[in-house]
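Researcher: First entry.
Model:
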Amino acid sequence: MPDNLHREVELQIPFHDVDMMEVVWHGHYCKYFEIARCALLESIDYDYRQMRDSGYFWPIIDLRLRFIKPARFGQRILVRATLTEWENRLKIDYLIRDSASGSRLCKGHSVQVAVAVQTGEMRFESPPVLFGKLGIAKP
């Protein structure tokens, strides 16, 4: 199994992400997931432009979040993205923790599938280019 299947980013909660109670609005957690997902994809040399250039779009078809504790204005958080499935789809698990204490704030996952740019058809298995980026043989 490749050892490059996770990335963690540290963020500080900005004022424009919070409500009047200084708690992060729930929709912004998706943005934090996206920041970590992009770092993960860049680390395997297969970011969104490279995906498109390889002939595939990878739309998200499922996104789930589970809130544990609220994140607040000014708080530093760690967002970890871990690639857990890649044979037929990209499934990425996420964990958001408080940077200082390590306490869990939110967890979730996203699922993406390969769609051929030329035909718009969804693939039922991941294309060979993904396996090459991961440095593993296609099953």
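Researcher: Second entry.
Model:
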Amino acid sequence: MALDPIFPKVYKSLLKPLLFLKNPESAHHFTFGLTKKTFNLPVVHSIVQANFSLEDPKLEREVFGLKFKNPVGLAAGFDKDAKLIDEMAMLGFGFIEIGTLTPKPQEGNPLPRLFRLPQDEALINRMGFNNGGVLAAVERLKKRKSKVIVGGNIGKNKVTPNENAVDDYLFCLEALHPYVDYFVVNVSSPNTPNLRDLQEKEPLKALLSAVKNANDAKEKPKPILLKIAPDLTNGQLDDIIEIVQETKIDGVIATSTTINRSVLTTPKEEVEAIGAGGVSGKVLASRSTEVIKYLHQKSNGAFPIIGVGGIFSPEDAIEKLEAGASLIQVYSGMIYEGPGLIKRIKKGLLAYFSR
């Protein structure tokens, strides 16, 4: 049943308005639960596979030693607890990043903590690393069926002081190591107090060195990536390049959410009423691309970059790749454009790669 030509219109005219009647976190849980219940029903499974899959050797990419079926990934934050990997794989993602996971379960920040800004096609979140803990995620990973590449995004618990942060990252690395294909060290969330302090040069170098050494001691080391904020200065980005090269980690994810509200056109009083949180969505596209381009050019392409931030179309994805990204990830774009976005991006990339 060929639905993919009309699905974007159906999503935007019918499904999205219904979902947007709910508050954002309720809508997330609703779609999450519905996907879990329905995608594995034989008829639904067949329809999803027929309409969302697109495979072609021209889309394949080999990056930090891993072979990706295509360069379009699901960013961390959507499936924090590894509950929906098999179902998301059906939508045609080349890789899926789970997390951010912490050693102990934590509830995150008080509700409400996720907000839509439709005028900007943006989201504001202050989730606060809400997750069920890394050990619960491991039990789910043991049971997954799909072969999709999975990344483990790891962080520290809110109650862990920064001077002990390395212990939390090492705990998560140890627990997840047999079950994920790569790791992401997340020090860029603005929603855990003082976490971004770990992006400073010396603390970051110490943290990454400890994680890299623990990983290298394994029989089969996994790629280690660093996720950075879009709010870093050029001087700080220069430090990132130096640290990546000194510690010999495998790459960078650019970028997480921004704390810069000047990019928004939503009325200031509406934004101020929402309060603290990181901004994602279309408004992040330009800055994210700038960071990717800066890192790529200043480092002479010394390490792979996964580009994320404001990807709402095939053109946005191509822009990230032309700036120097090897792979891309989506999240907010899928909320506003629907899950058909993944196939549309892949079609656009296929045409781009075939030129």
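Model: Note on the second entry: The first strand starts at residue 61 and ends at 63.
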